[in-house]
Amino acid sequence: MPIKDDVVLGRDVRILHPELVNLYGCIVGDESRIGTFVEVQAGAKIGARCKLSSHSFICEGVTIEDEVFIGHGVMFTNDKHPRATAVDGRPQQASDWTLQRTHVGRGASIGSNATILCGVTIGAGALIGAGSVVTKDVPAGATVAGIPARIMSAAENSAPADRAFSSEASRVTN
């Protein structure tokens, strides 16, 4: 599995086993860490000081801000109506579907095996429970869990989201 030449890696990015990831056309911010068997597709943006744990999939249209934790086996989607073929039976092409963007705010944490459906915003400092299926926006600082994910509590401490950026240049935005 390759790290393509079109990948933009920030300063001091750590990829534990570069031969066991699939990165192409994406941006990864300073000091981020990427585990084995992670795929980050073209057009995805990963902020600074993020951790992407093994077996996770970050698809086109996903923006992850700084200091976000992505647990093992987290899956993002980018198509509300995925199909293998178009209406006429031919294999589906890029022109046959609409990319839906997803945004993960600064300091959010997404637990292992969570699935994030496309078109949602996960607010800064939010916590997504392991195994959750996120189908709607998650407010900043909230804790959500379940299938579908529901708000369990509003966070008292959203410090990571409130801290000033140490390097504005490293911040990834839409």
Name some characteristics of this structure.
single chain; 174 residues; eight-stranded mixed β-sheet; six-stranded parallel β-sheet; 20 strands; 27% strand; globular
Walk me through the structure.
The protein is mainly beta and 174 residues long. 2% of the residues lie in helices and 27% in strands. It contains 1 helix and 20 strands. The strands form 4 sheets. Strands 2-5-8-11-14-17-19-20 form an 8-stranded mixed β-sheet, with no helix packed on it. β19 and β20 (150-154) form a beta hairpin. It is globular, with a radius of gyration of 16 Å.
Question: What is the strand and helix layout of this fold?
Answer:
Blueprint: E1 8-9, E2 14-15, E3 22-23, E4 27-28, E5 33-34, E6 39-40, E7 45-46, E8 51-52, E9 57-58, E10 62-64, E11 69-70, E12 75-76, E13 102-104, E14 109-110, E15 115-116, E16 121-122, E17 127-128, E18 133-134, E19 142-145, E20 150-154, H1 159-162
Parallel strand pairs: 1-4, 2-5, 3-6, 4-7, 5-8, 6-9, 7-10, 8-11, 10-13, 11-14, 12-15, 13-16, 14-17, 15-18, 17-19
Antiparallel strand pairs: 19-20
